[in-house]
């Protein structure tokens, strides 16, 4: 269901538009009506509509400026301009701010519905890409393919960051929706996930990069629980391997060492590991090391060279290279970014505490 916000100061014009749009009541709903430009901007923030029908000559702030302000914040919303003025300069300005359609009054119901159909198809196309990527992610998780799941989650997030770069509110909503979806998948697979913790943390976090990290951590916890509790008849030998890795990954373990410990040939273990987890042994151990590295960078003051040695990387430069390949940032950049967000969060908390403790001074 697509939400439409009508911006029109003439009562009869608004009623006519509502009557025309009612023909598609199974697909669209009138979310709100604004009679001035300023109220249109306020309602946009409150309602988050998919489509705005804007008359150019509304009071306070004209329709073109309303469209321009909205477009600066939101690259996805469909904006349809309605005007009685066949002015080439206005048309040029409307095109420059990337409105989706430009309708001249008097407009027929067919013209208006043709315009609505055009923009809903564009919105639907974007939503179908999102749904397809989300479904692909769900399939990979249920097939227990960790590497594929991680790649698909990253691909989905990259797509959302791209299409929502001008609409942070929608981006945050989409990220929260993915979190709810992952929790639902975990529930279907009988995995023990702390739903309230993740959902609350993601909803309270304003930084999209940290939200992405939380989703990746949630995905990792799902797979960790999947293996730890031997769900879906996971091979007992692989469970033993993963337990051994968890205790010794920081010691520079090799495939041969683990194979000897379990009593299998390295070749057989390599094939079995890839079959069960969808990721090869070396990649899994490396990613586990990097996860620990991220934790040490965020929560300790340990020098990066010491962290590298702690995780059995012989050269700090090699640790930096591997870390950047997996995380997208160098260890120092990662530490700086996490610490910056932690400081911001702490400062906000202190400010809120101050305001609360001194609220008698605020009227």
Describe this protein's structure.
Helix 4 (88-96) links the parallel strand 4 (78-83) and strand 5. The relative contact order is 0.06. The protein is of the alpha/beta class. The protein is built from 16 helices and 5 strands. A 5-stranded parallel sheet has the order 2-1-3-4-5, sandwiched between helices. The protein has helices spanning 11-21, 37-47, 63-73, 88-96, 109-142, 146-163, 168-188, 195-204, 208-228, 236-248, 255-262, 266-277, 281-299, 304-310, 316-327, 331-357, and strands spanning 2-7, 28-34, 51-55, 78-83, 101-104. The model is unreliable at 359-363 (pLDDT under 50). Helix 5 packs antiparallel against helix 6, helix 13 (281-299) packs across helix 15 and helix 13 (281-299) packs across helix 16 (331-357). The radius of gyration is 27 Å and the shape is elongated. The chain has 4 domains: 2-107, Response regulator (Rossmann fold, 3-Layer(aba) Sandwich); 123-230, no CATH class; 235-278; 290-363, Arc Repressor Mutant, subunit A (Orthogonal Bundle).
The backbone outline, from C-alpha atoms, is elongated
Counted by DSSP, the helix tally is 16
Query: Which percent range fits the helix content?
Result: 55-70%
Radius of gyration: 27 Å
Number of domains: 4
- The total beta strand count reads 5
Describe the largest sheet.
5 strands, parallel
Strand proportion, as a percent range, falls in: 5-15%
What is the mean pLDDT?
A: 82
Order of strands in the sheet with most strands: 2-1-3-4-5
Structural class, by secondary structure, is alpha/beta
């Amino acid at each position: 269901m697509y939400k439409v916000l009508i911006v029109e100061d003439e009562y009869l014009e608004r009623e006519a538009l509502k009557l025309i749009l009612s023909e598609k009541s199974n697909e669209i709903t009138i979310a709100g009506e604004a009679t001035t430009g300023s109220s249109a901007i306020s309602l946009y923030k409150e309602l988050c509509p998919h489509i705005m029908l804007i008359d150019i000559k509304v009071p306070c702030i004209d329709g073109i400026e309303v469209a321009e302000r909205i477009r600066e914040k939101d690259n996805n919303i469909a904006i349809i301009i309605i005007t009685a003025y066949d002015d080439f300069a206005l048309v040029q300005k409307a095109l420059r701010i990337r409105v989706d359609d430009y309708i001249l009054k008097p407009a027929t119901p067919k013209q208006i519905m043709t315009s609505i159909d055009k923009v809903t198809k564009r919105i639907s196309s974007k939503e179908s890409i999102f749904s397809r990527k989300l479904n692909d992610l769900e399939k990979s998780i249920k097939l227990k393919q960790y590497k594929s799941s991680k790649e698909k989650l990253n691909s989905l997030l990259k797509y959302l960051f791209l299409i929502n770069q001008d609409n942070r509110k929608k981006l945050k909503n989409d990220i929260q929706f993915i979190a709810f979806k992952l929790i639902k998948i975990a529930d279907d697979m009988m995995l023990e996930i702390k739903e309230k913790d993740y959902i609350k943390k993601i909803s309270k976090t304003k930084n999209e990069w940290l939200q992405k990290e939380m989703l990746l951590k949630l995905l990792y916890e799902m797979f960790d629980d999947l293996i730890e509790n031997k769900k879906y008849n996971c091979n007992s030998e692989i469970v033993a391997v993963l337990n051994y890795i968890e205790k010794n990954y920081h010691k520079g373990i090799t495939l041969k060492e683990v194979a000897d410990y379990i009593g299998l040939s390295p070749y057989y273990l390599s094939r079995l590991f890839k079959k069960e987890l969808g990721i090869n042994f070396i990649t899994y151990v490396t990613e586990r090391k990097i996860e620990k590295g991220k934790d040490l960078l965020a929560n300790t003051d340990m020098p990066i060279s010491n962290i590298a040695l702690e995780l059995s990387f012989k050269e700090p430069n090699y640790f930096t290279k591997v870390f950047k390949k997996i995380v997208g940032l160098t260890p120092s950049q990662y530490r700086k970014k996490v610490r910056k967000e932690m400081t911001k969060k702490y400062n906000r908390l202190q400010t809120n505490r101050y305001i609360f403790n001194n609220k008698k001074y605020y009227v």
